[in-house]
Design brief:
The mean pLDDT is 80. The chain is of the alpha+beta class and 208 residues long. The two termini are 25 Å apart. The chain folds into two domains: 2-137, STM4215-like (2-Layer Sandwich); 146-207, Arc Repressor Mutant, subunit A (Orthogonal Bundle), CATH 1.10.10. The longest helix is centred in the last third of the chain and has 22 residues, at 186-207. The chain is globular and about 45 Å long. It has helices at 7-15, 48-60, 87-94, 119-132, 152-163, 175-182, 186-207, and strands spanning 2-3, 17-26, 32-41, 64-73, 76-84, 98-104, 110-115, 136-137. The strands form two sheets. The chain has a six-stranded antiparallel sheet with strand order 4-5-3-2-6-7, sandwiched between helices. It has a two-stranded antiparallel ribbon with strand order 1-8.
Length: 208
């Protein structure tokens, strides 16, 4: 999904960042929500002025009410963002769908994890979103069987690996470099990727 006004989508696209949304929760008035996120710079830049520029850009977004920086070092910005709920969130809430924003890539694409008993339910809501909001583009909807479903950690890690160029030929980043960025031991990271890759390959083979 691509949402033009979304703070994380805009920041990732402008500064070639990748991002993961750790959690989100409603503010007291329920008009705003807080999102805890980690932004990863594609290049190993550790300059205070770069971090400040990115944070200030996020603050300038008209839908953002507050930004609190938790950490900004070693190519990582960990922050809390208070943001006005966008049409996507409001519609999903009204339709009582279980959803969470997961990741954003350097081209501004956002991945949402939505769970529902029927695909038709999700499709109906998604179609309505696309019709009513010109600045929202639905890129794809993927159905996942229970035994093929990635854990939240596997999903985040493999998306980050793809965004950072781990699967490019030649690779743009090594396991060791990626482990430093994600704060996961190399052996553990390798195991997470292998388990995720097996699930993805199994799904592909079963469906083709």
């Amino acid at each position: 999904m691509r949402i033009e006004h979304c703070w994380v989508s805009r920041a990732c696209r402008k500064y070639s960042l990748t991002a993961e949304i750790l959690k989100s929760y409603n503010d007291e008035d329920r008009i705003y929500m807080w999102e805890e996120a980690k932004l990863y710079l594609m290049k190993n830049i550790d300059e205070k002025k770069v971090y400040e520029e990115i944070v200030n850009y996020i603050k300038e977004n008209k839908h953002v009410d507050d930004v609190r920086t938790i950490q900004a070092e070693n190519g990582l910005i960990h922050l809390l963002v208070k943001v006005r709920k966008c049409p996507v969130y409001l519609m999903l809430e009204r339709n009582v769908l279980n959803f969470s924003k997961e990741t954003a890539t350097s081209n501004g694409d956002i991945s949402l994890r939505i769970k529902a008993k029927k695909r038709s339910h999700i499709q109906k809501v998604v179609d309505k979103l696309a019709r009513k909001n010109e600045n929202i583009e639905i890129l794809s909807i993927v159905k996942v069987k229970r035994d093929e479903e990635l854990t939240i950690l596997q999903d985040r890690v493999i998306r980050m690996a793809w965004s950072l160029g781990y699967y490019d030929i030649p690779k743009k980043i090594t396991i060791k470099e990626m482990s430093d960025i994600l704060g996961i031991a190399p052996a553990t990271l390798h195991e997470i990727l292998k388990r995720a890759e097996r699930k993805i390959i199994t799904k592909y083979v079963r469906n083709n």
